[in-house]
Design a protein that fits this description.
Layout: H1 2-24, E1 32-37, H2 42-55, E2 60-63, E3 68-70, E4 73-74, H3 87-99, E5 104-108, H4 111-115, E6 126-129, H5 137-140, H6 143-155, E7 162-166, E8 182-187, E9 194-202, E10 205-210, E11 213-217, H7 222-237, H8 242-249, E12 260-263, E13 269-273, H9 278-291, E14 298-302, H10 311-323, E15 326-329, H11 339-346, H12 352-357, E16 359-360, H13 364-374, E17 380-384, E18 391-394, E19 397-400, H14 403-410
Parallel strand pairs: 1-5, 1-6, 2-5, 6-7, 7-8, 8-9, 13-17, 14-15, 14-17, 15-16
Antiparallel strand pairs: 2-3, 3-4, 9-10, 10-11, 12-13, 18-19
Length: about 400
């Protein structure tokens, strides 16, 4: 019976897809589409590429976690769609982008999308791999399966496409093995085609060398240095005017909820970031610790999502507690799980020292209030996990909640 239901659903979907193709044709064939995949950095890389293309005078589109854009106009869809939409939705989106005169499209390609064949049939101009770390194992069951899902994207690239990968990630070279596309590597540590060097980084931004070209950016942290190098390398491969790209990179801002920061009137630095995987939380906290003043404290408010990969909870808990002076464990999107249970799992691997300094406040609003109460001039408050999201999902209901709004209301 289950197999019959599955076959009927598949048949229904194929009919929908064929109807969409009959109505819209194959709009993807009229666009230069660049896909970005990896655990962290997809949104930043795709968004920056989109912003650069627009600034250079190209008509361009963006498809990703935060929104769907065509020439700086947000495309409103009839329903909430995931990071990488399904094939029927993509056909409609591409048709709207063609209608808007777009030449380029920069899109995030998730591992779920590859496993579910959402981007099958799209002739990508290029593909970018950022990194691969622990995430989505509730779906993929193992890191190997997660990697293989990502690799499928590069295996579908044609010989005319380019494949750009992170040489410093342990999976960076492996993901390019046996593919038809032209292969390129970027990195800071290992031999590669596009070599980066960090000259300086602090709370004012980054000074970088990309293949000996001096680049300045307002973005913060080593992880953003990698994102910027991936963007710069892609612009070279696309034949963009690199002198103009260099100038744009000097003023461009990070996407919403990606290491967004502000200084309060009381001298406390507030940061909001989407970090919701072990590696992303570690990267953000290490960045803060590397560039903060010695006597300043790091107060970190974060949680783990419910109904999602429970294996990462103990890992994130340990990272957050170890790298923060005052860790505050709270709710993320508990969904249908008990927040207290999630937090208890986050505490599993804490040392006695870390457990003693960790505060538990399941209510996210109250947790942010407590962080502000504890902060003094020069301290840094990081609210991590939700970033651009403007809701908190509890027992199937989405309640309005925006970390930056909450932090700014309390931290005057």
């Amino acid at each position: 019976m289950k197999n019959l239901v599955k076959k009927l659903k598949t048949l229904k979907w194929k009919v929908k897809y064929r109807m969409a193709r009959y109505r819209y044709g194959n709009p993807a064939s009229k666009l230069k589409i660049i896909g970005v995949t990896g655990t962290n950095g997809k949104t930043t890389v795709a968004t920056l590429l989109y912003k650069i293309a627009i600034s250079l005078g190209y008509k361009a589109g963006f498809i990703g976690t935060t929104n769907i854009m065509a020439n700086e106009v947000e495309l409103v869809m009839d329903r909430k769609i995931p990071t990488t939409p399904d094939s029927v939705s993509l056909t409609k989106i591409f048709a709207k982008m063609v209608e808007a005169g777009c030449e380029y499209v920069f899109m995030e390609v998730s591992s779920h999308a590859m496993d579910q064949k959402r981007v099958a049939g799209i002739n990508f101009t290029g593909g970018i791999f950022t990194n691969l770390t622990h995430d989505h194992l509730d779906y993929h069951k193992s890191i190997e399966n997660y990697f293989l899902a990502k690799k499928k994207f590069f295996q579908m690239l044609s010989a005319n496409a380019f494949a750009l990968s992170n040489a410093d990630d342990e999976h960076g070279r492996m993901i390019l093995e046996g593919i038809k596309a032209k292969k390129y590597l970027y990195g800071f540590e290992n031999k590669c085609d596009f070599k980066g060097e960090i000259k300086r980084f602090d709370f004012s931004g980054l000074d970088l060398l990309f293949n000996s070209e001096h680049i300045k950016s307002n973005l913060l942290g080593k992880f953003n240095a990698y994102n910027l190098l991936a963007v710069w390398s892609t612009c070279v491969l696309l034949g963009f005017d690199m002198e103009k790209v260099k100038n744009i990179l000097g003023t461009i801002e990070a996407p919403t909820g990606r290491f967004q920061h502000f200084m309060s009137t009381t001298g406390i630095l507030g940061i909001v970031d989407y970090a919701h995987s072990p590696d992303s939380l570690k990267n953000v906290l290490m960045t803060i610790n590397e560039i903060k003043q010695k006597d300043n404290k790091v107060i970190c408010v974060f949680g783990c999502g419910g109904d999602r990969d429970p294996l990462k909870r103990r890992i994130m808990g340990k990272i957050g507690a170890t790298l923060s002076d005052i860790p505050i464990f709270t709710s993320d999107n508990p969904r249908n799980e008990d927040p207290e249970k999630i937090i208890a799992e986050m505490k599993t691997d804490l040392s006695m020292t870390d457990a003693q300094k960790t505060k538990t406040i399941p209510n996210r609003h109250e947790a942010i209030i407590e962080a502000v109460k504890l902060a003094k001039k020069g301290d840094i408050i990081l609210v991590a996990g939700k970033g651009h999201e403007d809701y908190q999902e509890i027992k199937g209901v989405k309640h309005h909640f925006n970390d930056m709004e909450e932090l700014k209301k309390i931290l005057i």
